[in-house]
Amino acid sequence: MKKVAVLMGSEKDLPIMQKAAETLERFGIPHDVLVASAHKSLDQALAYIDGAEENNLGVIIAGAGKAAHLAGVMAARTTLPVIGVPLSASMDGLDALLSTVQMPSGIPVATVAVDGAGNAALLAVSILAITDDSLRKQLAAHRDQLAKDTFREVHRG
């Protein structure tokens, strides 16, 4: 099974990005969790992405706040799917959301909600499930359970 990389620009982002790791663990998906700043440790971040094939990566999740360059830089370096998680480091995450969703044409980055690391992991699961029947069944069961957990009759007239 392919691995998912969970990257973040700062260790301060770990409480939010940990939700992605926890979701991947529930589905039994191997993953790496790294602090990899597009500004402060660019060479190391690029070296990691350049080794994607050797690392058996299938999807990259990149969380960043403020100008949120990490997802775009990673997407520019690989053809793997990249999912950006805008983080609420400032301006309630609006700056990061706009930075992530407005990537230049030609190098796409999927974007989830501000602080939506759990949903980013579920999107990664969906991507990997395209070629993995067992994973697709787990995802379907997860969604069935969501429906059971959330459907409630409130009033019947």
> Strands across the major sheet, in which order?
2-1-3-4-5
What structural class should be given to the helix and strand makeup?
alpha/beta
Number of strands: 5
Rg, please? 16 Å
Order of helices and strands: EHEHEHEHEHH
Task: Tell me the helix content.
Answer: 40-55%
The poorly predicted ranges are: none
* Mean pLDDT rating: 95
Give the overall form: globular
Query: What is the name of the CATH architecture?
Result: 3-Layer(aba) Sandwich
The tally of structural domains comes to 1
Give the N-terminus to C-terminus distance in angstroms.
50 Å
The major beta sheet can be summarized as: 5 strands, parallel
Number of helices: 6
Proportion of residues in β-strands: 15-25%
Q: Within the CATH hierarchy, at the fold level, what is the topology?
A: Rossmann fold
- The CATH class designation is Alpha Beta
Key terms for this structure?
single chain; 18% strand; alpha/beta; 157 residues; Rossmann fold; five-stranded parallel β-sheet
Task: Characterise the protein shown here.
By secondary structure, this protein is an alpha/beta fold. It has one domain: Rossmann fold (3-Layer(aba) Sandwich), CATH 3.40.50. The chain has helices at about 15-25, 40-50, 70-75, 95-100, 115-130, 135-150; strands spanning about 5-10, 30-35, 55-65, 80-85, 110. Strand 1, helix 1 and strand 2 form a beta-alpha-beta unit.
